[in-house]
Structures are given as C-alpha cells and as structure tokens.
UniProtKB/TrEMBL annotation:
GO annotations of cellular component type: endoplasmic reticulum; Golgi membrane
Topology class, membrane: Multi-pass membrane protein
One Pfam family named in its UniProt record: Rer1
Family under the similarity heading: Belongs to the RER1 family.
Subcellular localization(s) per the UniProt record: Membrane
GO biological process: protein retention in ER lumen; retrograde vesicle-mediated transport, Golgi to endoplasmic reticulum
Naturally occurring in which organism (per UniProt): Artemisia annua (Sweet wormwood)
Keywords from the UniProt entry: Membrane, Transmembrane, Transmembrane helix
Protein name: Protein RER1
C-alpha cells in the first residue's frame, strides 16, 4: 500500500513540476505580443491547410469561429460599464478636466490570445479524428451564418461604444496636446 502512495506522490510531483515549467514559459511570453500572435497565425494557417487538404472539417472551423467571436465580444467589452444617470451624467471622462479612468477590458489581451491559441490547437487535433467530421454539405451556409453573427455582434459592440463613449483600443503612444510634428521639425532644422 505504501508503494502505491509513493508512486502516486512521485507522479503527482512530476505533473506539478511540468505544470510549473509550462507556467514559467507562459509568463515569459507576456511581453512578446507580436511573436505570440504570429505563432497563433501560424496555427490558423496550419488549420486552414489541414481543412483544405482533407476537404472536410468545416464544422470544426465553424465552431472555432463561434468560440473566437464569443472571446472577441469579451475582449471588446469593458469590465464595468459606466452608469449613466440623468442627473450625474456618464462616469467616463468627457473633457480634459475630468478624471482619467483607463479602459479595463473584461478579457485581457493575453487571456484572449491564450484562449484563441488553445482553440486553434484543439481544432487542429480534432481534425485527426473522424468522429468530429460531420457530413455538412452546404458549408457556405455555415460561413454565411457565421458572418451574420459577426455583423450582429459587431453592431451591438459599436452601439455600446457609442452609448457609453469608450474606445477599447489605444493606437500609439499618448502625446501631450502641445506636441506637434512641425515643432519637432523646427528643433532639427532651426
């Protein structure tokens, strides 16, 4: 009996150690967003090649697309919606004198990437088993219904952005208002 407990303990310790190494590697990838997304794009290309080669697996890709659409909705949604009262007004800053409150997502970029990557890996693995292949002849219907869901979801997200006056993306570095391109050019050319 003691031998079984010892074997189970060593096996559990090996799994814990393996999980710790996996978590360390995952933590190191946090700062390399471009490389992470390039790896995910490679997985997407691999899945597309696999489905094209098999001429099957459209339902797997459809389910993956719905899953990614669900993740995208959480990625574009703020963690807490501002309350809009008729007396107080919206809580997000509307003028330069208002307090700055950063946009905090419901699903962070890293978690979004991680879930999408896991989805692609699982989808690629599913293409190796015939049990996941459904004979769904009109695959353009799947594509069309996915595009309809995409349009409805994006329309809802955009209307929410307009209603609560938030933008989920920040492009480039925030610059002070007095910074102008011509002012910089004057520094170099007098």
């Amino acid at each position: 009996m003691d031998g079984i407990k010892a074997a189970a303990t060593t096996t559990l310790d090996k799994w814990r150690r393996l999980w710790r190494y996996y978590q360390i590697y995952l933590d190191k990838t946090v700062l390399h967003a471009r490389n992470r997304w390039l790896g995910t794009a490679t997985l997407a290309f691999t899945l597309a090649l696999r489905v094209f080669y098999l001429q099957n697996g459209y339902f797997i890709v459809y389910c993956l697309g719905v899953y990614i659409l669900l993740l995208l909705t959480s990625f574009l949604k703020p963690l807490v919606f501002p309350k809009v009262d008729a007396t107080d007004g919206p809580l997000l800053p509307m003028k330069g004198s208002d307090e700055f409150r950063p946009f905090i997502r419901e699903l962070s970029e890293f978690d979004f990437w991680y879930a999408v990557t896991k989805g692609f890996i699982i989808s690629i693995l599913m293409t190796f088993f015939d049990v996941f292949f459904f004979s769904f002849y009109p695959w353009p219907m799947l594509l069309g219904s996915w595009f309809i869901m995409l349009v409805i979801t994006i329309k809802y997200r955009i209307s929410s952005m307009i209603k609560y006056k938030y933008v989920p993306f920040s492009i480039g570095k925030q610059v002070h208002k007095s910074f102008h391109f011509l002012a910089v050019m004057r520094l170099f050319w007098g």
